[in-house]
Amino acid sequence: MVTVEEIEHVSKLMKIDVDDHSEYLEKVQTIISYFDILDSAGVESEEISMPEIPIEQLRNDEYIPFDEKLIEKMNHYKGTYVRAPKM
Amino acid sequence: MTKIGLEIHCQLTNLQSKLFCSCKANYREFEPNENICPVCAGMPGSLPRLNQEAVKKATMIAMALNCSTPEKIAFFRKNYFYPDLPKNFQITQLNIYGDTSVGGSGTISVGDKKIRITRIQLEEDPGRLIYEGSSSKNQITLVDYNRAGTPLVEIVTEPDFETPKEVRDFLNILSDLLKNLGVADPTLEGAMRADANVSVHGGNKVEIKNIGSFHDLEKAAHFEITRQESLHDRDIPIAQETRHWDDRRKITVSSRSKEEDMDYRYFLEGDIPWVKINPEIRTELKSEMPESISSKKERYVTKYNIPEQVADVLSSDKFYSDMFEKSHTESNAKEVANIITTELMGLEDTREKRESSKLTATHLRDLADSIQTGKVSRNSSKNALHEILKTGKSVSQIISDLDLGNVSDESELLKIIDKIISDESEAVEQAKSNPQTINYLVGKVMQATKGKADPTSTLNLLKKQIGI
Amino acid sequence: MNLKISALEFIEEVKTGNITVEEFTAKTIERINQVDDKLHAFLSVNDDAIDQARNIDKKIKSGENVGACYGMPISIKDNMCIKDTKTTCASKMLENFVAPYDATVISKLKKQDAIFIGKVNMDEFAMGLTTEFSAFGPSKNPWNIEHVPGGSSGGSAVSVSSYECIASLGSDTGGSVRNPASFCSTVGYKPTYGLISRFGLISYANSIEQIGPLTRTVKDTAFMLNLIAGIDPNDNTTINNNNEDYLEGIESGIEGKKIGIITEMMGEGIDPEVLSATKEAISKLEGLGATCEEVSLDMVKYSVAAYYTITATEAGSNLARYDNLRYGYEMPVEGYEFNSYISKARKNFGPEVTRRMIIGGFVPSAGHAGKYFLKAMKVKSKLTKQINEAFKKFDLLIAPTVPILPFKIGEKIDDPVSLFLVDINTVTANLTGKPAISIPFKIVNGLPIGIQLLANSMDDKLLLQAAHALEQTVTLPEVPI
């Protein structure tokens, strides 16, 4: 079961203001309980696998500057800084 | 009992490009946000492109620290929001699905002690923040992403240190080792940072974050031990918490943000496949690794008969041991080592001085040879060295320009000695009754010859002329 | 001027001088102006298209080298970056975002003289399968505008099926190309994972998604694949396809091929019309000399739960960068503290994205990862093993693309789990990295049904040959718009 407190906690963790947590509760709860089906998959002993790449195929260490002033296409402030709120 | 564990972040400053893009690894020369591209600025749709050399260099560090190196390495996302993180997650490594970090466990000797290394991971550095505004109303943060994506190696140790001194010794060894490997210059500003966890008397572990230099790390450990001991003495419980090192006040301060609430939601970075580093590659890397400091030291002692202490100083410093390797010959090795450790290291004690120095390997070789063949006294060689650093002129040129050549002609030296004996009759009498004071007269001769006379022959001739 | 021609026919017509690129482009824009008010496939139309068309015509006239697309109008899902063009992901969060670079697929197509006629609608950040979750309003199914066109690449499918362009690029995370292709009666293709570079595709669930073409014919898909597939230094997950020519030998047929019918996709929850269409397709394939036999992949039962767990987790991380600091909409930072600022700024995500973010924060979190995320990853591994096992015995697998017919707009929007189950037949290809294609097969009561074929990794060419063979067995009515 998912509680309103959990939704509050997670929305904080994901940094999204949710005005009414109960609004999300029902749907999120339905979805999460649907995920319980995973318990019966019997996959505990499976290994997690991922695609692989040999080290030789990785990029060479070479300095190539980006061909434009990217900061000019971003929100900038006081010359070339990005502005953030106080910490 | 005090326990200290370290997490050391070391930038791979000798690389050309960042960890996941081709922007410059050394961000220090740029105006704010001029060393960025869609990848390191985390623009929508951009993907990381892993730097091969970074993986190799990090693997070498793991090997040099006697850590295991796996056949496959994996990258993970550490998810948290912070303005210096353009993607609001950091690509790093972990060992949650087996040993997939670039370095596994290992040990390194610090004096008589073995320090266990938990793991070594390759990760990206965040950008930098500048805080602006005075009142709480107008406060904002300025962000510069030039540093974001700089290749960083994190070395995590077990809590095996018991004193700040051990921490310092370890850091010195580590710093020399990284320089010797040619992977990093730990003296560059911000190139080495650390977190430390400290506990006393088996109490709660306190993490200290954000220590900006090795120097401060020792201080921070010292401060924290004292703080915890004092709490312990007064039976005040020590809270398990994260504290920050306040660089200005040189104290640790409890962090306002609740780090224990952090839930990083680590999971595999799908944009980077697992990187296979097969045994042949690892063997190749091993063979490419420069000679270790300890093996260098041993070679200096056994092959050239260089005194242990000199060999120690010389081998630990990559810059000077490289210079030694380039300039010495079979016959003058000891002399070259001597010039480097007793004179040169003192003259070139800063990066600026090293960089502006005009000294070459040929200079050192010629100077050592000149001393050995008696063309210049050891004493005058110091002046010559000074002049070389400044002008870069050849050793023979400097000896003649500054008239530093040894007064090797005995009759000429005798003339000078006779003059001194007649001028300093009082001192001569004193020397006769107390032979120790003859050094005063040796000094006078040296002064008169501008240090060019050989001290041993001067002494002998003086004794002979005075008759003692 | 006939807009209803295939890509290959268009190129022939331009090459032979029967039509000019300018004429065709102008006519296409006219068509968009005519029908898109009703369909809402486009989020933006390229103002320079006519100029670009003129330039290509000039090149053709003067005998200069012309790229393989000859000015073919292509629509692009609005989650791919075209330099100096708005790329919104159909989200308020990126409403004003102008991409500073070209996606790899875009720069490849630019070199081949394609004309990007416009950016097309989608579910916000590709989260959805109806295009109803676009922040800029839903797209409509041209076969019946009361029905959803499928999604999330709904705009792509609508624009191709209603002749607002010749081909489109969509992206497929769990069926997002194949599902709308099936609902709108176009070909929709999800290649082997890594065959097409994702550089410049705005990530939703990066470990399983691929860009894929939507076209009128299978041959057109093969043609597009020739232009955009292959290893890309900007995407470490791309694989080398040795410059495979997917058009060459596309008419080879499927004589002697073994096709497995996925049991789990033919039973529970399937619409009888869809089931009977699939059976019809199977007998047509048998008629072409293939042998068909049932095969069970029992992990399919868990695939949707695994799929949503993994996608929510990756999305939660991929969408974290939208904090409104570096780009985004006007909202001054003064007076805010960091957390409160971005939490407020991120309210601009729509409700479905917010919901998936909450799930994406929940399932991989410290207390729950073992129960949800880890298990989902293991289901993915086991499903991959099972399908690899199946491909030892079979050359291809078959199933309906979607178990049900296109439904009405609004019908399922409030029922997340029933919406999930619409994905049951498509997520397997994503979770296992296999190529899959939806082929238009039938129109029942005025609504399309697509048939899905899957092949083993890197068997994309074989898959296209089989799809072409099946396609040749059907003649479909024209879209009624």
Protein model, in words:
The complex is a heterotrimer of chains A (87), B (468) and C (481). Chain A has 87 residues and is of the alpha+beta class. Chain A has a domain at 1-40. Chain A contains two helices and two strands. Chain B has 468 residues and is an alpha+beta fold. Helices cover 41% and strands 18% of the residues of chain B. In chain B, helix 2 (164-181) packs antiparallel against helix 3. The model of chain B has no long low-confidence stretch (mean pLDDT 90). Chain C has a domain at 7-251 and 459-471: Amidase signature (AS) enzymes (Alpha-Beta Complex). Chain C contains 15 helices and eleven strands. In chain C, strands 1-3-2-4-6-5-10-11-9-7-8 form an eleven-stranded mixed beta sheet, with helices on both faces. In chain C, helix 5 runs parallel beside helix 6, helix 7 runs antiparallel to helix 15 (460-471) and helix 9 crosses helix 12 (373-393). Chain C is globular and about 65 Å long. The interface between A and C is large, with 46 and 60 residues. Strand 1 (52-54) of chain A pairs parallel with strand 15 (274-276) of chain B.
Mean pLDDT of chain C: 97
The amount of beta strand of chain B, in percent, is 15-25%
Quickly count the helices of chain B: 16
Structural class of chain C: alpha/beta
Count of distinct strands of chain B:
15
Name the helicity range of chain C.
Answer: 25-40%
First-last Cα distance of chain B:
64 Å
Rg of chain C (C-alpha, Å): 21 Å
Instruction: Please name the CATH topology of the domain at 7-251 and 459-471 in chain C.
Output: Amidase signature (AS) enzymes
Largest interface: A-C, 46 and 60 residues
Helix-strand topology string of chain C: HHEHEHEHEHEEHEHEHHHHEHHEEH
